[in-house]
Backbone:
């Protein structure tokens, strides 16, 4: 294929991606209009598996006064942990895992590179639809990364060599699991600290948060 043909193909792919993002943005705006949240909450508690809870030496609730159990402080969820999330209005739920972070990540498109002074970071998520309804959203609009200064960064249009991105929208039947990467463009000097994800295309009142590193 000639260089001109490659550029044409790349341009078409970029326009198609932009159109998909615009459609997802309209869905997100609709979700916002329909949402009647009472304020967001950040969930940092990892979902404990049955195997982990039954393992020898696993943490047990401490005993408090008069034989009452006291809650043992839990460490914040980290990358590779799963957080059980729920939507705001539909009652739908999903188990979301921030599988891994690839930092920096190389662009999969030779004509689409990070802006000067910036880099790509790719985060792989796994989503299991645990509710009665299918998961049918755009994961890129649900995810953010946050640096040590508290600055949050939304998803980029780019795809990287870290692995396949989610389709837009992503459709996962109840009980099934989907996996894909979301790409972010961040300053070269930004030290990332957290990954966040929320259902309802990012507008759910509950936000899952994972510690990086």
Residues:
């Amino acid at each position: 294929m000639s260089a001109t043909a490659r550029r044409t193909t790349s341009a078409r792919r970029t326009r198609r991606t932009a159109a998909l993002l615009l459609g997802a943005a309209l869905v997100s705006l609709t979700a916002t209009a329909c949402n009647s949240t009472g304020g967001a909450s950040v969930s940092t508690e990892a979902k404990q598996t049955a195997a982990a809870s039954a393992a020898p030496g696993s943490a047990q609730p401490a005993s408090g006064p008069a034989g009452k159990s006291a809650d043992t402080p839990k460490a914040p969820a980290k990358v590779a942990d799963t957080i059980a999330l729920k939507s705001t209005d539909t009652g739908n739920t999903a188990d979301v895992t921030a599988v891994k972070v690839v930092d920096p990540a190389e662009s999969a498109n030779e004509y689409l590179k990070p802006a000067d002074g910036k880099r790509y970071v790719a985060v792989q998520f796994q989503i299991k639809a645990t509710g009665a309804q299918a998961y049918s959203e755009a994961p890129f609009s649900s995810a953010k990364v946050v640096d040590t200064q508290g600055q949050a960064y939304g998803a980029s249009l780019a795809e990287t060599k870290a692995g396949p991105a989610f389709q837009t929208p992503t459709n996962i039947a109840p009980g099934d699991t989907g996996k894909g990467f979301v790409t972010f463009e961040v300053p070269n000097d930004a030290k990332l600290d957290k990954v966040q994800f929320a259902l309802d295309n990012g507008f759910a009142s509950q936000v899952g948060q994972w510690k990086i590193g």
Notes: The longest helix spans residues 3-34. The CA atoms of residues 124 and 181 lie 4 Å apart.
